Structure formats: C-alpha cells, structure tokens
Amino acid sequence: METNTQTGKLLATKYLGNNPKLATRLEHSISVGDLSSKVAKRIAQNNPELNINVDLCEFLGYCHDIGYFISPEKHEIHTIELLKKEGLDPEIAKKAMHGQLAEQFGEKEGNVRQYFPVGIEGIILTYCDMSVRIGEPVAIKERAREIIERIKTIPTIPDALKKDIEDNMIKALPRFERYEQIVLALAGLKSAKEF
Q1: Which residues contact 25 (CB under 8 A, 6 or more apart)?
Q2: Which entry of 7, 32, 59, 177 is 20 to 30 Å from 132 by CA?
Q3: Domain, as residue range, for 169
C-alpha cells in the first residue's frame, strides 16, 4: 500500500465519508492531514538528517481517525487494525497511534508504551491532531479545552466516560505540550499559527 496524500484521503473517505454521523470526523481528518503536510515538509526542510517520511506523515494525518468507523472507544487501535486489513505493514500502521490512550488505558493495563506515538511521524501526527479540529491550528492547551467542552455536550456519551475523558486529557496535556515543543523547535517556529 502506498502511504501518501491520495491513499490517506481515499481511506478517510471510504471509512468516514459514507456516514453522516462521521462527517465532522472526516472534516477534522482532512484538516489534520493538511497540517501534517505543512509540518512534515517544514521539519524535513529544516532537518534533512532526520529523514522524515513526509508522505507517511500526510497519509497518517488523513486516515488517523478511520477507526471511528468501528467505535469511538479506542478508535486508534481500530485505525491500526483497519490499516493492517488494508495491507499496510503492521510496523507502519502502529504510527497511527496519536491520543491519550496511554493515560486512559495504559496505566490501568500496566503498559503505557503500547499507546505512545511511534517515531517522529507519530509525534507529528499527535501534535497535528491536538492542534486542529477543523481549519486553522491552535495551541495545544486551547484545543484540549475545546475537546473537553465539546465532549460535555454530547448526550450519547455517559457522564462517567465524559469525566474519564476529561481527567485523562488533563493528565495527557503535559505530554502533548512536550510534543508541541519538539515540533515547533524542529520547525523553527514559535506557534502553530505560523504553519
């Protein structure tokens, strides 16, 4: 399987584009893919010695949330499984890990590492996912607040799960902010708005 913009967009559309309930998830994925492209190109240009796979970063951005097709809970795991089903090498598919599962499940399961992003591509993906909902990127703290407030308004999510998501977002925030610092330093920029 090719890991590029075109394939990423095709997979996002295949899994998210035919369900009206996932329409905003598809819009978000397109925004994350677009930002991933800008970020990866900028970092690769500034740091050629890192050998960043720009095409892979773009691909991951566009299809990182296809696991919502199966379920929102642990959607990252579902994304990895769908990517493997589509023929992607399992080691590359793992680079789609991008959220707060380390805090939400890893600690309880005694293995947080299984939920960490893999490589610089995974850090770029996590940064981009946590910097943009739809449209222009924002600071990680601002995006985290937006996620927490939005979750509170979804009537189909049980209150206990809402609280769990909020608590784990707060626990994950320092990790996400470290990724933000890494990405901005490698890109030679001061804020997400400069991309």
Answers
A1: 16, 65, 68
A2: 7
A3: 5-194
CATH code of 41's domain: 1.10.3210
- Give pLDDT, residue 52: 95
| Rounded Cα–Cα distance for residues 75 and 161 (Å) | 15
Q: Kindly tell me the burial class for residue 118, based on how many C-beta atoms sit within 10 Å of its own C-beta (0-12, 13-18, 19 or more).
A: middle
pLDDT given for residue 100 in this prediction: 85
Give the pTM.
Answer: 0.94
Does residue 160 register a pLDDT over 90?
no
Which among 43, 65, 62 has a CA at the least distance from the CA of 53? 43
Amino acid at 195: F
Give burial (CB, 10 Å; 0-12/13-18/19+) of 102. Answer: buried
Question: In the prediction, which pLDDT does 172 show?
Answer: 94
Q: How many domains in the chain? A: 1
Terminal Cα distance for the chain, rounded: 29
User: At CA 72, angle to CA 32 and CA 139, rounded to 5?
Assistant: 35
Helix/strand/coil for 181: helix
